[in-house]
Write a structure and sequence with these properties.
alpha+beta, six-stranded mixed β-sheet, two-stranded antiparallel ribbon, about 35% strand
Length: about 180
């Protein structure tokens, strides 16, 4: 079964390389069934190889520049008589920011090779993406904020527990004396 999963992953990877990197529609279509159902970015749908050909050709004609693909991660699972694949990769054109591309594909063995019968592709919109650095900074700020909130709650609890109260006395700039009294 492992060999079948690898073969199916290879078919999906080869199709995406033919379409996105080589921008060769006919080579990409060798990997799909005649009755393929495809949902692409922007919810563009194609039912059948002829409709997918038209959709791909329009996209290539509108922008023939090739993509570079990086960091492809495939998860494959046997499903009935075929294979279900989830794929995440980074796609970018030279001098443009990388965009995550997500795919779900169902492949069936047809005449000895795996072919894509169902394909869903989505590309994260650049305006909605968050860079890894920004996400890391956001998490760090949230952690610091939570830690600061715990310190404030502890000080409030301490302040409320001291008989007589607590007061602050400002001494030199940046130095405060906290005094408790009965």
């Amino acid at each position: 079964m492992k060999k079948a999963l690898e073969e199916a992953k290879g078919a999906l990877a080869d199709m995406m390389r033919a379409y996105l990197v080589e921008r060769d529609v006919e080579s990409a279509l060798r990997y799909v069934t005649e009755d393929v159902y495809s949902v692409g970015p922007g919810n563009e749908t194609a039912l059948g190889k002829a409709a997918l050909r038209t959709q791909m050709q329009r996209a290539v004609e509108a922008d023939p520049r090739p993509y570079e693909l990086h960091d492809a991660h495939f998860t494959a699972k046997a499903m009935g008589t075929g294979v279900l694949i989830l794929c995440r990769m980074q796609a970018a054109r030279p001098s443009e920011a990388e965009q995550p591309v997500f795919q779900t594909a169902s492949l069936q063995k047809e005449q000895g090779t795996y072919k894509i019968g169902m394909l869903h592709t989505s590309i994260a919109h650049p305006d909605k993406m968050e860079s890894a650095e920004a996400a890391s900074l956001r998490r760090l700020i949230q952690e610091k904020d939570a830690r600061l909130e715990r310190v404030i709650q502890t000080l409030q609890h301490l302040s409320n527990s001291i008989p007589g109260g607590v007061g602050e006395i400002a001494l030199d700039e940046g130095f405060t004396l906290i005094e408790g009294n009965e």
